[in-house]
Design a protein that fits this description.
It is a single chain. By secondary structure, this protein is of the alpha+beta class. The protein has two domains: 60 residues, no CATH class; 123 residues, Domain of unknown function DUF1254 (Immunoglobulin-like), CATH 2.60.40. Helices cover 27% and strands 26% of the residues. It is built from three helices and nine strands. The strands form two sheets. A five-stranded antiparallel sheet has the order 1-2-8-4-5, covered by helices on one side. Strand 4 and strand 5 form a beta hairpin. The protein is globular, with a radius of gyration of 20 Å. The model has no long low-confidence stretch (mean pLDDT 86).
């Protein structure tokens, strides 16, 4: 469904651009648009992409850097509907055929946490936590472009990603001891293995 929506979105965008052009079609040719339902779905799908691109632009202009994690103070995020019971960290990562991004998590027990990796449409492509990685719930994770040929540190859990850049959102439950949650949050590190293009 995702691939179909993506293709429909691009076709719709190209069709609308051509329709807006004075040279859209030869005289007498009819412009055929997809069904209304497909247009609405494609618009919503592209709108999600545009929101992610907007956020990327704003974050990088505000000083965020590729492959560097930013730890936010509890309650210190200004996006819509933040969870006030978690400490947030975030990052933008870039990977390529010769560089992965290493994320190191401390041991977190009896406390909710998650590291979500999102693609350019805001869809989760990886989710690092004890539920998805019960044999490797903490330690080093290597976020790599699918098929990348990279030598990784011993013990690193490789996580293949379908795209070169991703948004990373991390959450750690504050619980009864917010100071401990903040201490755990500050132990999360991130670094690239090389210099991704």
């Amino acid at each position: 469904m995702t691939r179909t929506l993506r293709r429909t979105s691009y076709v719709l965008l190209a069709t609308l651009c051509l329709a807006a052009s004075a040279h859209a079609a030869p005289a007498g040719a009819d412009l055929v648009l997809p069904p209304d339902d497909d247009i609405v779905k494609a618009y919503h799908y592209m709108l999600a992409r545009w929101f992610v691109l907007r956020q990327e632009t704003l974050d990088l202009k505000a000083g965020m850097k590729w492959n560097q994690v930013v730890h936010r103070e509890p309650g210190g995020v200004d996006w819509a509907n933040p969870n006030l019971d978690v400490a947030y960290s975030e990052a933008w990562i870039g990977v390529d055929e010769s560089s992965c991004t290493l994320v190191t998590l401390p041991e977190i027990t009896k406390r909710y946490y998650t590291v979500q990796v999102l693609n350019g449409w805001g869809e989760v492509t990886a989710n690092l936590n004890e539920r998805n990685y019960p044999k490797h719930p903490y330690g080093t994770f290597a976020l790599c472009l699918n098929g990348a040929k990279v030598t990784l540190p011993a013990g690193a859990e490789r996580v293949d990603l379908p795209n070169r850049k991703s948004r990373v959102l991390m959450r750690i439950e504050l619980g009864a001891d917010p100071q401990q949650a903040r201490a755990l949050q500050k132990q999360i590190t991130m670094r690239p293995t090389g210099t991704p293009v």
